[in-house]
Amino acid sequence: MGLSFSRQELRDLLVAWLALGLAFTLLLQPQFRSALLGRVGDLTLASVISTLVVSLLTVGVGFLLHELAHKVVAVRFGQVAAFRADYRMLGFAIVGALVGFLFAAPGAVVHRGRISAKENGLIALAGPVTNLLLALVFLVPFLLLVGTDGFLTDLASRGLQINLLLAGFNMLPFGPLDGRKVRAWSNVVFFVVAVPSILLAFAALFLVPF
């Protein structure tokens, strides 16, 4: 079974990517929030566009590759898998960001077919591991640009921060999160991945203040 995408799935991925980018732009740009709410503030179009691009290339890409990793591994195990956006939660994320609060649950890859606990655990693990690998990618320019300012510095620091937060949050062993599925398969694998991921996520909170 090869990897394929329906029109609905491509639309859901695009909408989720753009909505997350907008929500994080609103969160990181209080002047933009103020302008949209009718309050006059010090706002430039260049700063909004820069923040939007950084958001799309960090949280947006981190989210997309996280979900695509789930799908790739699920298809590898013979599953029928597709991403489905949660439009209600995407709307909530944007509205919440307008008042300075963000909780993003943009959707998830759903898959069906006969599967073992190990395969289900590996499908779940693929997402957080992808975010950890992306964090490593952003770490190199982050270290090279320490002490500097500008677009690339923002991109590197946000990319590192967001991907560490995505990995740590998703490895929590609760509800529909990936950590619960990984732990149901293997406590050893769960603790080996979850403990450093969660600790790094806490450290990332202090990397760049929101």
From TrEMBL:
Provide the transmembrane region boundaries: 45-66, 87-110, 122-147, 188-208
Could you list this entry's UniProt keywords, alphabetically sorted: Hydrolase, Membrane, Metalloprotease, Protease, Transmembrane, Transmembrane helix
Q: Which GO terms describe its molecular function?
A: metallopeptidase activity
The cross-references to InterPro entries, in alphabetical order and at most eight, read: Metallopeptidase_M50B
Q: What is this protein called?
A: Metalloprotease
Q: Which organism is it from?
A: Haloarcula limicola
